[in-house]
Amino acid sequence: MAGSVAVALLAGACAGPITSVTPIPTPGSTSTPTPATPSATGSPGTAGSPTPSTSASNTPGASTTPPPGVSIQIVPFVDKVIAVFLATANDGTGDLYAVEQIGKIVRLHADGSVDATPFLDINDQVVYGGEQGLLGLAFHPGYPADGRFYVMYTAAGAGANTIAQFTATNGVADPSSEKILLSIPDFAPNHNGGMLAFGPDGYLYAGTGDGGDAGDPHGNGQNPQALLGKILRIDVDHGDPYAIPATNPVNRGMDWAPEVWDMGMRNPWRYSFDRQTSDLWIGDVGQGLWEEVDAEPAGLGGRNYGWNTMEGLTCYNADTCDQTGLTLPVATYGHGQGRCAIIGGYVYRGSATPAADGTYVFADDCTGQFFSLDAATALATGSATITTLLKTELAPSSFGQDQNGELYVTDLNGTIDRIVFQFGGG
Ligand SMILES: [Ca+2]
Predict the structure, then answer these.
(1) How high does pLDDT run on average in the chain?
(2) In angstroms, how far is the first alpha carbon of the chain from the final one?
(3) CA 374, CA 68: separation in Å to the nearest integer?
(4) 191 CA distance to ligand 1 centroid (A)?
(5) Above 50 in pLDDT, residue 418?
(6) Which of 185, 211, 289, 405 has CB 3.0 to 4.6 Å from 349, enough for a Cys bridge?
(7) How far is the centre of ligand 1, averaged over its atoms, from the C-alpha of 153 (Å)?
(8) Ligand 1 center to residue 308 CA distance, Å?
(9) Which domains are seen in the chain, by residue range?
């Protein structure tokens, strides 16, 4: 598995009640070996989206793009919590909720303390390990007055990709309140998506992988009727168990399944909405060669991001391909230097470092490298240069954004860290 680095790191992870289960979230990796990796220059199809440029301090001798002046520090926040996502309830408390792949959600406080009792424990409903497990969490925009929150997990038994609603009262989740919204059958343990997020439009967005194995053998990415290999969008405030928004592609004359918002995804493990512009930023994990960043202006769903016709900016398993109707990524990076899987992040809109405003931050799962690009440039021109911000020993599994817009990273070694931006060449 391409995620073997994470596995190896995890073997030495922290002691605790979950050590024995060996959660191994390798987002979207597959068994496809990494062939000789194209160099950053001269590779077909890379114009405008080079392999991440590297600052001299990170990779001596590498070709460089001048750093934009933004750098980051990783500052310890919480340890002994192996999380694959970090959510805020936007409830004014400063609390954060760490999603554990084994099927638990734990509440963290701004001072770094961790509640002893999980906020939610659905361990017995979840199959976990590899890329399976409890993978996503989103609180209803009306929380806590509206106590609903949503999870996405791999269900015990047949391993269906499951999107479910729970309810909390006065900050206490009721484990018996589950209402399943969607149960999407799956055929392989990998590529299970798992991201949930409410858009600025109030609709719930869910990411699904292409189902798995390698190369999308069932053609889900390019099948607009399949719910796998997609970004889905549903209205949880109407209908039972949900309604289809009037502006979903199916209601715009497109012959797509009602829930489908975007197609052509391989494994959109993590995506986010720019809290200032409402634009959608997707990190779509690649097959054997290219990781990609997709950027979607607010409300412009109905796009086809290309998989498995294309991987990144190149035709997949072909010299040429019909690119009609496809939206190409704004940036890609290759699998050189052991890189394996993109961890999509956030456009920084916090107040702590105004100079970093508008910087999209993301990472690679296997190398612990953190990258950035300029969000406005990417959207205005269709491409943006990737800069390497930092090389770490982390095995990033996800980013998180608190109610103030400050960013965090979860690490398969069992730490949750703050990301602190600096400006001025630091
Ligand atoms: Ca799967």
Answers:
(1) 87
(2) 36
(3) 9
(4) 5
(5) yes
(6) 405
(7) 11
(8) 16
(9) 4-423 (2.120.10.30)
